[in-house]
């Protein structure tokens, strides 16, 4: 709509070159990924301050003050996180399937069967994970703290890019062909009759 739009006369009203910076970013990311793939980068191993990977220690187990927490609650929260991810993936898949013309009955059956199966699988996979969770605070792990900070800056950068894109579209809105009114609800289409929809 905003990239390759044409008015009633057939003249282009879109911004065909707007995709160039996005393609440039994609090429740079692919090049960096290829470089890292073929580079001999050593594995990053964090120091195990709490000896969580040691099954047996010299002189007996290390005595550390434990925090009280509910493992069933941890399991439920982990499972709910997995359920949200499955739901989001199902919504994306629903859009893709509806775009390529899959029937509603087939699509609904596929999504329900796949969703229930993934929920059951995640429930089985997360059971041992919740059982082996450490009682130590996650914020004491430098990788986790740094990852949270990196995610914060990533979301901030993403929101900034979206805001610039929205500002661009609102200031350089392409003209909308009058023939598109036929696909709109009747009151909305009638309210725009005779008006210039480009402003």
- Portion in helices: 55-70%
**Morphology call:** extended
Distance between the termini: 15 Å
Number of distinct beta strands:
0
Structural class: mainly alpha
Question: Whole-number radius of gyration?
Answer: 26 Å
Low-pLDDT sequence parts: 56-64, 185-199
Main beta sheet: strand number and arrangement? none
Q: What is the succession of H and E elements?
A: HHHHH
Q: So how many helices?
A: 5
Outline the structure in words.
With 199 residues, this protein is mostly helical. 56% of the residues lie in helices and 0% in strands. The protein contains five helices and no strands. Helix 2 runs antiparallel to helix 3. The longest helix is centred in the last third of the chain and has 30 residues, at 142-171. It starts with 19 loop residues before the first helix and ends in an 8-residue tail after the last helix.
In short:
The protein contains 5 helices and no strands.
Write the layout of secondary structure elements.
Layout: H1 20-38, H2 71-99, H3 104-131, H4 142-171, H5 186-191
């Amino acid at each position: 709509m905003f990239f390759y739009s044409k008015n009633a006369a057939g003249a282009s009203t879109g911004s065909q070159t707007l995709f160039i910076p996005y393609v440039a970013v994609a090429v740079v990311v692919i090049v960096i990924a290829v470089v890292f793939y073929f580079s001999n980068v050593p594995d990053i191993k964090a120091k195990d301050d709490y000896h969580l990977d040691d099954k047996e220690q010299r002189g007996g187990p290390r005595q550390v003050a434990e925090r009280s927490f509910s493992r069933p609650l941890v399991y439920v929260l982990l499972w709910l996180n997995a359920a949200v991810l499955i739901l989001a993936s199902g919504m994306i898949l629903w859009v893709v399937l509806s775009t390529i013309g899959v029937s509603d009955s087939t699509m609904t059956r596929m999504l329900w069967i796949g969703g229930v199966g993934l929920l059951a699988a995640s429930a089985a996979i997360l059971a041992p994970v919740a059982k082996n969770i450490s009682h130590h605070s996650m914020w004491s792990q430098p990788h986790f703290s740094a990852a949270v900070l990196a995610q914060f800056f990533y979301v901030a950068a993403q929101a900034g890019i979206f805001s610039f894109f929205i500002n661009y579209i609102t200031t350089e809105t392409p003209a909308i062909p009058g023939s598109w009114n036929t696909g709109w609800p009747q009151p909305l289409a009638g309210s725009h009759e005779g008006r210039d929809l480009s402003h």
